[in-house]
Structure prediction request, 327 residues.
Amino acid sequence: MTINSVPQNSSFLVYGNILINDQLKFETLKYTLPQWANYWKSPVFLRVRGEYSEAVADFCANMENVECVQGAAYRQWRMQTWWDLRRKDSRFVMLFLEDHMLAKSPPDSSVLLQELVAHEVKVFQYSWNAQYQKISRYVQDALGSTNDLGVYLPLSRQNRNEILKIDTRCFISMTSVFEVDFFLRILKSSRPFVRKLDPRAPYSLEQKPESTWYLPIVFGVSKSELGICIDDDNTIAGSSAISRGLYLGDRSPRGENHHAKASLMSLAWKGKEKLYGKSSIPFIPLSLKMFLTRFISWPTYFSYSIQFLVLKFMDSLTRRRMETIDI
Prediction:
């Protein structure tokens, strides 16, 4: 299979550091990767791990301007990604996830990229369009509507709390286009210090909505739909591609609260009972239940935080070894 349009956009890179360990993920990747490479008309660098890494490499060998590398030298996803991107000349990088597909009528990629440059955007949310609509409408009401394809929010320590009153969403997430220098800064940081996720996992990259250490930045989101998660409704029932009949592959929707489970404690503490439902235990308020869950979970958080420090030290040794053989 060959990408129809020859990539010409050297200022943009589609990058993926993904685990493909079953046939279902492999089939999904074969559907979504050519879409994104065609859309951005850019080179692709794909690092793939798992049982199907060789099959993915064979598939990529038939695509133009796609470099596929199997395996990983580093234990942390963030460190491996930083190593891969540290010498890339691209100004922007899109994080490729095989379970997010291109929308049926996406905005023009060349115009969108011009806007990212003009507005000096650091992070652009390319998927979960429905989930970011509250913030999008707020920005358009506050700053006025424009003819831009995207909505661009100057996010600072001063206005962050006001934005979070509108909706509680991550501004640093996996479904993003990043300005490369800013992304490298995020990757090299040790934030968050308290780890709620395995530090080896890619989602350890994401920063909680309340974080301010990386501000100020310009955050962007597309006015029209650009990317769609294939099987996850993520708090909005019927929003995934499968739920809307846009993807006919062999996958099942994961439900509107799939992503909510991981962040339930922090969100429910802020009065999100209406979104996530009431406590399943009679006579115990949801906020109290979440507080108790937080308290019980502290050993796990502590364990992940210690594990991160150990992995960081081990990866620093790997980096020294890699630098001695790097040409």
